[in-house]
Amino acid sequence: QVRLVESGGGLAQAGGSLRLSCAASGRTFIRSNAMAWFRQAHGKEREFIAAVNWDAWTGDTTYYADSVKDRFTISRDNAKDTVFLQMSSLKPEDTAVYYCALRPPAPSSSVLLRPNEYDYWGQGTQVTVSS
Description:
The protein is mainly beta and 131 residues long. 3% of the residues lie in helices and 53% in strands. Strands 2, 4, 5, 6, 9, 10 and 11 form a seven-stranded mixed β-sheet that branches. It has a four-stranded antiparallel β-sheet with strand order 1-3-8-7, with no helix packed on it.
C-alpha cells in the first residue's frame, strides 16, 4: 500500500508564493514513477496542474497546464520520496484543494492529464489566495 501526504498549503496574497510537498511512503519509490499535482476548486472538476514522468531513456520530463506554466515548478527529491510544487505569482483563481497523485510511468503525456489514470492520491491540502 502506498500513502501520499501533502503539506504546505495555506493562505497567500496574490503575487505571493507557496511550496507544496507530497511525501510518499509504503511499498514504492517515487523515482521510477509518474507523480502529478491536481487541484479542485469548489464546485469544479479536478484539474491537472503539473506532472513529472520517468523514462528509462530520458529520465524525468515535466509537464504543466497552460494556466500555471512559468509560474509553478514541479520537482522531486528521490532520496526523500517527496515531490514538490513551487508556486509563484499566485492568483486568486489558484485557490483550490491541491492533490498529489502517483502512477507507473506514463506511456504518453495525455495519460498524465487524466485523474482516473492515477493509482494513489493524497488527502489534499487547501491553498487560498487573497486578492
